[in-house]
């Protein structure tokens, strides 16, 4: 008798099925084989080796390059989220074009030879602004997100009625490449534990995607999470990283799903950074070793992330455990492909493991994209934010006795300016206080244009000011990204509770909603005919100030990394596109990724910086040819 090992037996049994059944009738099918504990594709056993990639964190121009690199590593699938708030910015207004063209991404993946595991939410977490939920949901102050709250469900139903019919033609059964679809995301880690909500989603997904599509859930590696996040009819999968006992984790999946394939839906190949954290790194040997262990067990594995990319603009989320902790702009994630899409040693180690389990495509790995160190550019002051309101807020302020949130102002992201008058003479330093910790998330305070200091959520609830009765008090409030995980995702922004000056409540506000991105996208300040004869740095302004400059064209439009050494905190735009936040003082991220396709090789490139606290003395910025995401690593 031939002695055979257990995994081989499993495959043999699965293979028998092909011979026993009519293979022709099974082409174009993807299903779960509960007898033999595997997936079946076209009636044959199928194991996926997948990587997460977020089209919304990578410029469209680079999608094909990144997918090809994943294919050449030996992956046979990619796992993608769909962020609702990226596609429905205002209720009923949808955008699926340009960098938001989901179907183009699916098409490229299909052309590349990659299957897709789709995770359309509606909640996605993903360290993305509000976990992918649109902030306009918060216009209802009592909304219970991720539950059967009728207002929430109505918005979900309208969205999924747009999204799911779009993806239906991409299902494997319809000739596309989507093998399976996840319902919600780690729902068991949310406090509501509302099975009726999961049931509602289950029904909706069935209506739009049919009875035969494999639908699944993903939850963290605890009994509580698996219990609250799973539902009969949705295949239960688990997620865990390198610090976990693999067999114990899959034993847990087995308790909820006694038969069927083993699936780790998020095997953490790296990890994220928050501002002020140490730069996270996950050891390559551990990743490779655990990947091998899981694949040897016949498990299906998705590596989260395979390429992380960038939280451009205002799209970073935040965590809130003991305090509010916003995620940095880079979503490099210490992933096998870097933020800029370059293959790393981790990728090569993973490829070496995959080779032992399936044939890896022949041929060269596409090389890293070209990088260029364009050098220094000196910026000039445009002016203080508070003196540019005619341009930044052309509609003017609304007048209100009380404070209003960003959501009430229907300005969901970025910055808001709250203005009032000092109610009395302040002889001595007098504290401006947010007694209920209502500054969400950071406030820059000036009196008659003179900067006084800042307030910060959870850490700095008072700042001293001085001035005369009737002086103008300006408070610029920054939204640093809504909480994306846990019970605090109803994260209203702005001044969300009363401010006191000494013992007086401040009232009678002028609230300016700032159209900064719209104004910069339309060419300001470079089109503005401003008098910029001021010498750089000649007059040290503190507080929110705009700066501008140009990077002269060099015939190249290669990727580069922007370093704002000596600057404090703010936002950068290049040619009208919002690159994201910089905060080198807090770290660990020191450089912003500037994708080459944003640059012009023939025209001067427009740089705009909003510095919130204090610019570097020489007002210079530096374009380098490499990323620096770890302030502790030193460097120039
Ligand atoms: C839709 O999104 C794309 C990509 O970000 C953008 O270029 C385009 O202007 C948006 N369309 C509308 C109508 O907002
Ligand atoms: C996906 O790619 C396959 C193989 O190239 C092709 O036959 C199929 O038509 C493609 N599907 C779609 C929806 O484009
Ligand atoms: C991992 O968990 C299994 C039980 O599932 C246990 O038998 C084994 O000892 C654990 N391994 C380690 C290294 O703790
Ligand atoms: C405000 O000034 C007073 C008096 O100088 C000082 O005791 C207090 O610490 C200051 N408070 C803050 C928040 O700076
Ligand atoms: C820079 O701004 C000017 C003025 O708005 C505009 O004409 C020019 O096209 C911009 N340059 C690039 C490369 O977008």
Automatic annotation (TrEMBL):
Domain Beta-galactosidase galactose-binding per the UniProt entry, residue ranges: 544-600
Which Gene3D superfamilies did the record assign? Galactose-binding domain-like (2.60.120.260), Glycosidases (3.20.20.80)
Q: What is the organism field in this record?
A: Paramormyrops kingsleyae
* UniProt entry tagged with the keyword Endoplasmic reticulum: no
Q: Which residues form the Glycoside hydrolase 35 catalytic domain?
A: 39-356
For this chain, the family text in UniProt reads:
Belongs to the glycosyl hydrolase 35 family.
Q: Which PANTHER family match?
A: BETA-GALACTOSIDASE RELATED
SUPFAM superfamilies registered for this protein in UniProt: (Trans)glycosidases, Galactose-binding domain-like
Any idea what this protein is called?
Galactosidase, beta 1-like
Taxonomy of origin reads: Eukaryota, Metazoa, Chordata, Craniata, Vertebrata
The terms under GO molecular function for this entry are: beta-galactosidase activity
Q: Which residues form the active site?
A: 186 (proton donor), 266 (nucleophile)
Pfam families, A to Z: BetaGal_ABD_1, BetaGal_gal-bd, Glyco_hydro_35
Alphabetically sorted, this entry's keywords are:
Glycoprotein, Glycosidase, Hydrolase, Signal
Q: Hydrolase: present as a keyword of the record? A: yes
GO biological process assignments: carbohydrate metabolic process
Q: According to the UniProt entry, where is the signal peptide?
A: 1-20
- The Beta-galactosidase 1-like first all-beta domain extends over 405-515
